[in-house]
């Protein structure tokens, strides 16, 4: 209900991206994109074998090393969301039979086997050769060839109807081509553009940007993206996978560099693998009279994608004044402290309390995914109201300072406790949802469910999530409601990074960026005044 029944586009509304740090062993050159792509593809093959063979060690958390459910990992590879009317489905293809990767370049799709029969990656030099072939083949495809990637960015009903029409026109050959694309281990997107700022990179990696929205298959569980400069990211379809499983994947593929994978590659004399143009045979067999309709479908989807991108605004705030090291030294949970700062900033942005969501994993339970940590507690409200709609400058007033500091400690402690409770399935939101599903279809729901305050409390104007890893430079997702903001953040040892997404017309992102910095500086001054 939360994902597969939603009929909005997955772009901004469902998918999220993680941008990786640079590979220090790759020098800037014409071949840097291919080298980086071969590196992440080689590392992906290694991790894929662990997952698909059942050899991936289970994750554990906490001092007691509590086991986490690994069920979600099965959706990482050879998996794809399938558009259907009313409710989408998800397909998982046999990874032992489907050993190919899909490579996207200039809106065209290619396939080649990147692992051998044992599931081990082909040598790096072979992967580089095949990736370069994909680039060269894309350069020689006529500009009149239809491009279909942006269709997957449409709302789900429009994409479903378009896919049905494609199969009606193209017959079995079209169905075979789509199946080959859907069944690939991942989609590796070789973009022919590159971002010049953190914001432009975030836009490109989250939505494809204006130039690369055709160079994605947004239904695939994993789109691994490498731009023209060799910057890399992963775009994830969220329906079946939450951030922590993808972070595990990201950690594994960023723990090696180009030099490492070249050293680890086995030298072989002869390796039989060919690059296949996925849709070439389809379009050569379709009657000439039907090609304009397919071109029109793709062009319409591309224009709709650009309109959707233009509707959104992205701002990235790298706050360098302090980070997790300082907060731990002062006795605060870094996540709780940053959450309270976000709450103060959004209170000042909207002028009132706004329901605030933070995702908390419940993977200690079988098939557990997430529970909601609600930032707005009575303790957090007391602190924020005391701080007011603007800085008061009363940090040097002993009595006022002591009161604020005490309220801050209570607020962060309350948030930490709620997070702990939520992680143990003792939050409220999933329980309320579960109860709503077991009400007899002919019986009226409990009066609580029609209470305006109850419904307002679930309208997540502020949707947040913390994912911190030293190999992840930035990450992000869209807002949940039209009038809201999506705030992805990381609390590194010496800095904090915030990726903020909202609708452009609401004029929220740049204002919130400023307010978050202001809140962090103001609370820092308060803490420092304590000595």
Quote the distance from N terminus to C terminus: 50 Å
Major sheet details: 8 strands, mixed
Q: Work out the count of structural domains.
A: 2
Average pLDDT rating = 93
- Shape descriptor: globular
Read across the widest sheet, the strand sequence of neighbours is: 11-7-6-8-9-10-1-16
Second-tier CATH architecture of the largest domain: 2-Layer Sandwich
Roughly how many Å is the radius of gyration?
A: 24 Å
In terms of DSSP E residues, the strand content is 15-25%
Query: Approximately how much helix is present in the residues?
Result: 40-55%
CATH C-level name of the largest domain? Alpha Beta
Q: Under CATH, the topology of the largest domain is which?
A: Chloramphenicol Acetyltransferase
Counted by DSSP, the helix tally is 16
Class from helix and strand fractions: alpha+beta
Number of strands: 18
Q: What does this entry look like structurally?
A:
The protein has 531 residues and is α+β, with helices and mostly antiparallel strands. The chain folds into two domains: 16-312, Chloramphenicol Acetyltransferase (2-Layer Sandwich), CATH 3.30.559; 320-528, Chloramphenicol Acetyltransferase (2-Layer Sandwich). Helix content is 41%, strand content 17%. The protein has 16 helices and 18 strands. It has helices at residues 32-52, 124-139, 156-183, 198-207, 209-212, 243-254, 258-264, 280-285, 291-311, 324-329, 334-350, 378-387, 398-423, 429-438, 452-456, 509-528; strands at residues 16-20, 60-61, 66-67, 79-82, 89-92, 100-105, 108-113, 187-190, 222-226, 232-236, 276-277, 312-319, 356-361, 370-374, 462-466, 472-477, 485-491, 496-503. Strands 11-7-6-8-9-10-1-16 form an eight-stranded mixed β-sheet, sandwiched between helices. A six-stranded mixed β-sheet has the order 12-18-17-15-13-14, with helices on both faces. A two-stranded antiparallel ribbon has the order 2-3. β2 and β3 (66-67) form a beta hairpin. The model has no long low-confidence stretch (mean pLDDT 93).
């Amino acid at each position: 209900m939360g994902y597969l029944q939603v009929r909005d586009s997955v772009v901004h509304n469902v998918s999220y991206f993680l941008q990786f740090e640079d590979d220090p062993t790759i020098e800037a050159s014409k071949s840097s994109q291919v080298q980086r792509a071969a590196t992440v593809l080689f590392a992906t093959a290694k991790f894929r074998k662990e997952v698909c063979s059942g050899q991936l060690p289970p994750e554990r958390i906490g001092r007691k090393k509590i086991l986490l459910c690994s069920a979600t990992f099965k959706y990482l590879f050879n998996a794809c969301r399938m558009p259907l009317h009313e409710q989408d489905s998800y397909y998982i293809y046999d990874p032992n039979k489907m050993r190919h990767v899909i490579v996207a370049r200039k809106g065209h799709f290619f396939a080649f086997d990147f692992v051998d029969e044992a599931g081990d990656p082909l040598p790096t030099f072979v992967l580089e050769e095949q990736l370069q072939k994909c680039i060269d083949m894309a350069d020689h495809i006529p500009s009149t060839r239809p491009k279909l990637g942006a269709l997957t960015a449409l709302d789900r009903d429009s994409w479903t109807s378009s896919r049905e029409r494609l199969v009606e026109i193209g017959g079995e050959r079209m169905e075979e081509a789509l199946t080959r694309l859907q069944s690939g281990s991942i989609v590796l997107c070789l973009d022919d553009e590159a971002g010049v700022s953190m914001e432009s990179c975030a836009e490109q990696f989250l939505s494809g940007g204006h130039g690369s929205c055709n160079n994605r298959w947004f239904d695939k569980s994993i789109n691994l993206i490498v731009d023209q400069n060799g910057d890399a990211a992963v775009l994830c379809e969220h329906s079946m996978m939450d951030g922590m499983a993808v972070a595990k994947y990201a950690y594994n593929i960023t723990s090696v560099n180009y030099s490492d994978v070249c050293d680890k590659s086995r030298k072989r004399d002869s390796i039989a693998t060919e690059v296949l143009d996925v849709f070439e045979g389809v379009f050569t067999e379709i009657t000439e009279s039907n090609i304009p309709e397919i071109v029109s479908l793709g062009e319409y989807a591309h224009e709709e994608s650009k309109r959707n991108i233009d509707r959104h605004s992205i701002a990235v705030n790298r706050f360098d004044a302090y980070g997790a090291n300082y907060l731990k030294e002062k006795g605060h949970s870094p996540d709780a402290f940053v959450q309270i700062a976000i709450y103060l900033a959004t209170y000042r942005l909207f002028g009132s309390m706004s329901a605030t969501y933070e995702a908390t994993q419940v993977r200690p339970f079988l098939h557990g995914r997430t529970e909601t940590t609600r930032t707005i507690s009575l303790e957090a409200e007391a602190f924020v109201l005391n701080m007011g709609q603007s800085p008061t400058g009363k940090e040097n007033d002993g009595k006022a300072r002591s009161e604020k500091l005490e309220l801050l400690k209570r607020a962060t402690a309350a948030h930490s406790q709620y997070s702990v409770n939520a992680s143990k399935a003792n939050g409220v939101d999933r329980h309320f949802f579960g109860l709503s599903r077991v009400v007899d279809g002919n019986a009226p729901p409990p009066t609580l469910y029609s209470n305006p305050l109850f419904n307002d409390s679930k309208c997540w104007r502020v949707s947040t999530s913390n994912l911190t890893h030293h190999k992840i430079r930035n990450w992000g997702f869209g807002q949940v409601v039209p009038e809201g903001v999506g705030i992805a953040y990381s609390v590194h040892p010496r800095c904090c990074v915030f990726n903020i997404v909202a609708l452009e017309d609401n004029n929220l992102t740049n204002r919130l960026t400023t307010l978050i910095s202001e809140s962090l500086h103001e609370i820092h001054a308060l803490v420092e005044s304590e000595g």
